[in-house]
């Protein structure tokens, strides 16, 4: 059934040819967008929904989350707010809770967070394993994630489990663990950071994953300058995420490559780190994405709007740059062209704002502005009446 969405005051398409349209309309047919243009030229459809001058944009593409988990790390957050420094070691707390949870508990928790994100406009979401850290629990995390998320990433190299030998654990990740999860995931990631995995260990994991046909992602340069960005670019990773501490060579490498710099502002705020240098990256010509990094320890939010607001108010991004980075930028980080755009043939992932323009995302910080969401052509939530 074709649905005509009309009365759009401002339509952000992220398409170079279509641009940003005023007084626009969109036709959704099944799971895809069938037509985009001026409301005056809109074709007939089976159903018509008038959004009465509101802004419409692509659904958020959240390209970095860790949502297959159990347990709670409120105490760690309180300690950090009281002045304790963030370290990678807190991951072990979530590992213990995740291993103890049933499949049903993990799946229900994942679905709850994905639904929570969808109500706020997130229509395409990546999530990672990484709270199992043994063959059995990494494999079941991948299986559960594959049933719910759009994209799944293997992050067995999240942390060396307490009491394990680092080199022996990397052998396990590159061998038996990778064999178990590879059929269930599209990507592999590694936490290349002090307290996690060094450059040589990270390189081993990424090369092993690449040999198995997986795309590459890297957690890098979160806690200080390090080899993460350089390694990601050298190995052709789709994305290097965090990018909080960057030297000039890192910025230049990203600008000269196809590797997306995925920035995680909610995590920077929660860990009381400096915000990533978005303006430097953009001015140098790097491709930037914004993502939530939703996880129970360092960034417990599914709000992409919060990330956009922070990027504009505190990271010196324009509203158009921030919205693009949270939609098309996330799609680029996932090497997808079917989401993050409003154009014929794209997946029918849309959000309507309770506002006349995307500027209100930063102009009205903290105000929930998602009025309606379509995901794969299905209207998830809306207060608008349709007409046949």
TrEMBL record:
Gene that this polypeptide is encoded by: hutI
Binding site for N-formimidoyl-L-glutamate: 131, 295, 297
Protein name: Imidazolonepropionase
Pathway involvement of the protein, from the record: Amino-acid degradation; L-histidine degradation into L-glutamate; N-formimidoyl-L-glutamate from L-histidine: step 3/3
Binding site for Fe(3+): 64, 66, 219, 293
Role this protein plays: Catalyzes the hydrolytic cleavage of the carbon-nitrogen bond in imidazolone-5-propanoate to yield N-formimidoyl-L-glutamate. It is the third step in the universal histidine degradation pathway.
E.C. code: 3.5.2.7
Keyword RNA-binding in annotation: no
């Amino acid at each position: 059934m074709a649905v005509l969405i009309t009365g759009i005051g401002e339509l952000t398409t992220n398409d170079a040819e279509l641009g940003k349209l005023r007084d626009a309309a969109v036709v959704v047919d099944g799971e895809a967008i069938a037509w985009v243009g001026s409301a005056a030229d809109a074709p007939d459809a089976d159903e018509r929904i008038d959004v009465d001058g509101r802004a419409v944009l692509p659904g958020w593409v959240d390209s970095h989350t860790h949502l297959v988990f159990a347990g709670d790390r409120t105490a760690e957050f309180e300690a950090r707010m009281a002045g304790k420094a963030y370290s990678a070691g807190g991951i072990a707390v979530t590992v213990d809770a995740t291993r103890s949870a049933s499949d049903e508990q993990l799946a229900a928790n994942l679905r709850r967070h994905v639904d929570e994100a969808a109500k706020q406009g997130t229509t395409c979401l990546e999530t990672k394993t990484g709270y199992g850290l043994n063959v059995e629990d990494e494999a079941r995390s991948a299986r559960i994630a594959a049933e719910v998320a759009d994209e799944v990433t293997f992050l067995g190299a999240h942390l060396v489990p307490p009491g394990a030998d680092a080199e022996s654990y990397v052998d396990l990740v590159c061998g038996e663990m990778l064999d178990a999860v590879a059929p269930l995931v599209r990507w592999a990631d590694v936490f290349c950071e002090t307290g996690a995995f060094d450059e040589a260990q990270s390189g081993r994991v990424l090369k092993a994953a690449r040999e198995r046909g997986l795309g590459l992602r890297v957690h890098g340069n979160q806690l200080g300058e390090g080899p993460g960005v350089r390694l990601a670019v050298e190995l052709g990773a789709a994305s290097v995420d965090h990018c909080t501490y960057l030297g000039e060579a890192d910025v230049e490498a990203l600008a000269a490559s196809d590797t997306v710099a995925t920035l995680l502002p909610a995590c920077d705020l929660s860990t009381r780190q400096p915000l990533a240098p978005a303006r430097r990256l953009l001015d140098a010509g790097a491709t930037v994405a914004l993502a939530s990094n939703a996880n129970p320890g360092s960034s417990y939010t599914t709000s992409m709007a919060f990330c956009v607001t922070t990027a504009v108010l505190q990271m010196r991004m324009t509203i158009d740059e921030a919205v693009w980075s949270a939609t098309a930028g996330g799609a680029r980080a996932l090497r997808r062209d079917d989401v993050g755009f409003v154009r014929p043939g794209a997946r029918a992932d849309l959000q309507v704002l309770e506002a006349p323009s995307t500027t209100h995302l930063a102009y009205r910080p903290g105000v929930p502005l998602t009025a309606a969401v379509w995901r794969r052509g299905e209207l998830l939530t809306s207060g608008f009446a349709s007409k046949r």
